Amino acid sequence: MLQDQEVHAAELERTFIAVKPDGVQRGLISEIISRFERKGYKLVGIKVVVPSKEFAGKHYHALKEKPFFNGLSEFLSSGPVVAMVWEGEGVITYGRKLIGATDPQKSEPGTIRGDLAVVVGRNIIHGSDGPETAKDEINLWFKPEELVSFTSNAEKWIYGVN
Ligand code: IDP
């Protein structure tokens, strides 16, 4: 039985989620963690960091041609960020659903940005947008030894497997 759980856990995917400086300053860390945790996803890494502007630029490298790239990198490095790795079936795609659209004004009510943010430049949370990005972002923000692997007792109730 334990073996089955281990196999199952090994198949689960991981995504990188960050509470950006505006979310931290507004006291929304626990609210954001709570939405992922209540859904049934598992927190396997977390730390509070103030990234340098250079590091923020690496994180947002795909956007380096955008006019807002400099301001965005500056903003991400302007204060503490809560960097996290969440694990679970479909967590990359569904995590983005929990987060909502990039522009909070286009985010549905019930989503994190829809409920808690107003403008695109202060949309409080980041989430990886696909499997490759997730892998790259997890590697950028975390060393392997900063992440844990464990089977939660709740998994059999969340996934319905033994
Ligand atoms: P995402 O965060 O929903 O994945 P991306 O297009 O990857 O969206 O953009 C990264 C971040 O850049 C957004 O979360 C937002 O903070 C910022 N951003 C995106 N578009 C604009 C814009 O038009 N003006 C200012 N900031 C923007």
Automatic annotation (TrEMBL):
UniProt keyword annotation of ATP-binding present: yes
Cofactor requirements of the protein: Mg(2+)
GO cellular component, one term: chloroplast thylakoid lumen
Protein name in UniProt: Nucleoside diphosphate kinase
Catalytic activity, EC: 2.7.4.6
Signal peptide (residue range): none
Family listed: Belongs to the NDK family.
UniProt entry tagged with the keyword Ribosomal protein: no
Top enzyme category: transferase
Reaction equation(s) it catalyzes: a 2'-deoxyribonucleoside 5'-diphosphate + ATP = a 2'-deoxyribonucleoside 5'-triphosphate + ADP; a ribonucleoside 5'-diphosphate + ATP = a ribonucleoside 5'-triphosphate + ADP
Keywords for the protein's UniProt record, in alphabetical order: ATP-binding, Kinase, Magnesium, Metal-binding, Nucleotide metabolism, Nucleotide-binding, Transferase
GO molecular function: ATP binding; metal ion binding; nucleoside diphosphate kinase activity
Protein species of origin: Lupinus angustifolius (Narrow-leaved blue lupine)
Primary location class: mitochondrion
Functional description taken from the UniProt entry: Major role in the synthesis of nucleoside triphosphates other than ATP. The ATP gamma phosphate is transferred to the NDP beta phosphate via a ping-pong mechanism, using a phosphorylated active-site intermediate. Shows the highest specificity towards GDP.
GO biological process: CTP biosynthetic process; GTP biosynthetic process; UTP biosynthetic process
Compartmental location: Mitochondrion intermembrane space; Plastid, Chloroplast thylakoid lumen
Residue ranges constituting the Nucleoside diphosphate kinase-like domain according to the UniProt record: 12-149
Subunit (UniProt): Homohexamer.
Active site: H126 (pros-phosphohistidine intermediate)
Positions that bind ATP: K20, F68, R96, T102, R113, N123
